[in-house]
Amino acid sequence: MKNAIKNRIPIHVDLEPNRDEVHSGICLKSNDNVYIFISYNEENKEFDGYAIIRGYEIEKYREWDDEELSEIENNNFSDFIGILPLEKMDNLYQCLLELKNEKLISIFDGTDDDTFYVGRIINVTNNYVELKLMNEDAQWRENEKINIDEITYIGFGSCYEKELLNKNALQHHI
């Protein structure tokens, strides 16, 4: 993994046996607690936001082969370099503290692979993060407290979160 991080080689991370999912991107940091990635979006064939995956979720990975590398249509990974304070992001609690200024994040808590929370961080303690939730119609909803120990994945800065924010802004300018 150190070579992939140092040389910014895209990788596929297999989350089996914990969940039936493969995550792709460029790993910026890895330790026992967290892996921090620039996410790759298979649909638009470019890098799209960030992902933080809990360390125990990842058991194996592989570097992309030449064919996979050739499928990248917009190699925009440099847009995401040097933005995150990686030296301050050693565990999920620290990552959440650093994400307090993000306008919108997505959190999966491991209950199932399809259910996730989208919102803005209101508060972070050692035990939980409190989000002001936004629904799929870009409407602000109630707050939700999520136990940090149950979080398996955090995504932010992707086209999904940006679309919701734009939709929300449009609703308030009408």
Cα gyration radius (Å): 16 Å
What's the number of helices? Answer: 4
DSSP helix fraction: 10-25%
Secondary-structure content class: alpha+beta
> What count of structural domains?
1
Order of helices and strands: HEEEEEHHEEEEEH
* Portion in beta strands: 35-45%
Given as residue ranges, the uncertain stretches (5+ residues, pLDDT < 50) are none
- Described by its quaternary structure, the protein is single chain
Q: Outline, from the CA principal axes?
A: globular
Q: Give the strand order, joined by hyphens, for the main sheet.
A: 5-1-2-3-4-10-6-7-8-9
Short précis:
With 174 residues, the protein is an alpha+beta fold. The protein has 4 helices and 10 strands; from the N terminus they run H-E-E-E-E-E-H-H-E-E-E-E-E-H.
